[in-house]
Amino acid sequence: MSRTAYNRLTLFACILTLIVIVLGAWVRLTDAGLGCPDWPGCYGHLTWPSNEQTIAIADQVRAERAVDVGAAIREMVHRYAAGILGLIVLALAILAWRRRHEPDQPVKLPLFLLALIIFQSALGAWTVTLLLKPAIVLAHLAGGMLTFSLLVLLYLRTREKRPSPSLPQRKLGLALNVALVVLVAQILLGGWVSTNYAALACPDFPKCTGLWWPATDFVEGFTIWRGVGVDFEGGILDQEARVAIHLTHRIGALAVIGVFGWLLFKLFRTPGLAAPSAVLSALLIGQITLGILNVVLSLPLYVAVAHNGMAALLLATMVYLMYQTHHRHGWST
After folding, report:
1. What is the C-alpha to C-alpha distance for residues 83 and 313, in angstroms, rounded to an integer?
2. 197 and 115 share one domain
3. How far apart, in whole angstroms, are the C-alpha atoms of residue 22 and residue 3?
4. Of 307, 310, 13, residue with least CA distance to 147
5. Which residue, 216, 298, 211, 286, is CA-closest to 249?
6. Could you give the C-alpha distances from 170 to 40, 87, 266, 317, in angstroms and in order?
7. What is the pLDDT of residues 108-131, one digit of tens each?
8. CB proximity list for 223: less than 8 A, separation 6 or greater
């Protein structure tokens, strides 16, 4: 396979990973995470219950919960897409190993991605078997975002054109690193909001339940690991704990606005980065708008799913900027 073909396959993997992330959000936000009580199949089969006979058999498998065919379909569509992605990453790793003696062919990165995908599969299984335990669901989300970011990096690394950053561009390293850390922290907070069903704990904006600082329980809200056997579908936290999680995410949004405002000020003053700076600005404004709309419109599905997808695009843009401004021989594994 030529370098160009390898690069195109990597680009396809990036697009598919974004689709998988969006599908995962769709599954989570439509309460379909337990649509299939087993893994990797659904009620012991490779597809969902589709007729009266298979539905009746599925009802006997999990008598305590009625079969929801729609939820099972959503869950399996997500699994099919993730499975195809896994096969593509496997192909990228094998091809990278075969091309390991060619100049500028990353090898460690594709192999790490393969290991990450395998671990992601385990997290997907544990998400079901541990009944949507928030820490596992959050880890699964984080793994998906990391997979997407590294595939974007692999795509950039395998392009024919290599960046030659100027001195002013290389000086952006600190600002980009700080912004990336703040963005990742905010994405993880957003995942914690979602996995604990705290998105509507504050149903108004900018206040929360009519107050600037309502009653909160941060200890309960940020207890990461709880006992085995608890069914977390719908959430188990009380209102004060959910409010604590929601407010923390709002505070995180203010931190993102402040840090990214500083970063964008520096980016727009740096020659050669006008286009990615404009894209980053548009994505940031869109993400903030979607976050507010989630609250004031009571979490409409299309807005909530778009909020997840926009977070991934922000992350990809940051990876692009860091790659473009890094020294010429960096990020080469």
Report:
1. 22
2. no
3. 29
4. 13
5. 216
6. 45, 36, 12, 17
7. 999 999 999 999 999 999 999 999
8. none
214 and 178 in one domain? yes
- The pair of three-digit structure tokens given for residue 76, joined into one six-digit string: 């399996």
Amino acid identity of residue 170, one-letter, is R
d(CA 90, CA 174): 34
Point out the least confidently predicted range of 65-69, 92-96, 216-220, 327-331: 327-331
Q: How many CA atoms lie within 13 A of 10 on its CB side?
A: 30
CB 257 within 8 A of CB 292: no
Residues 98, 21 within the same domain: yes
CA 247, CA 63: separation in Å to the nearest integer? Answer: 38
pLDDT tens, residue by residue, 185-228: 999 999 999 999 999 999 999 999 999 999 999 999 999 998 77
3-class DSSP state of 169: helix
75 given a catalytic annotation: yes
If asked whether residues 188 and 333 sit together in one domain, one would say: yes
Nearest to 190 by CA among 248, 235, 238: 248
3-state secondary structure of 93: helix
**Residue 98 neighbours by CB under 8 Å, 6+ apart:** none
Q: Do residues 152 and 215 both lie within one domain?
A: no
Rounded to whole angstroms, how far apart are CA atoms 269 and 285?
Answer: 19
Coil vs helix vs strand at 45? strand
The residues, ordered by sequence, that sit 6+ positions from 177 with a Cβ below 8 Å of its Cβ are 322
Q: Which domain holds residue 319?
A: 165-333
Cβ atoms of 109 and 333 closer than 8 Å: yes
Q: Which of 52, 75, 220, 240 is flagged as catalytic?
A: 75
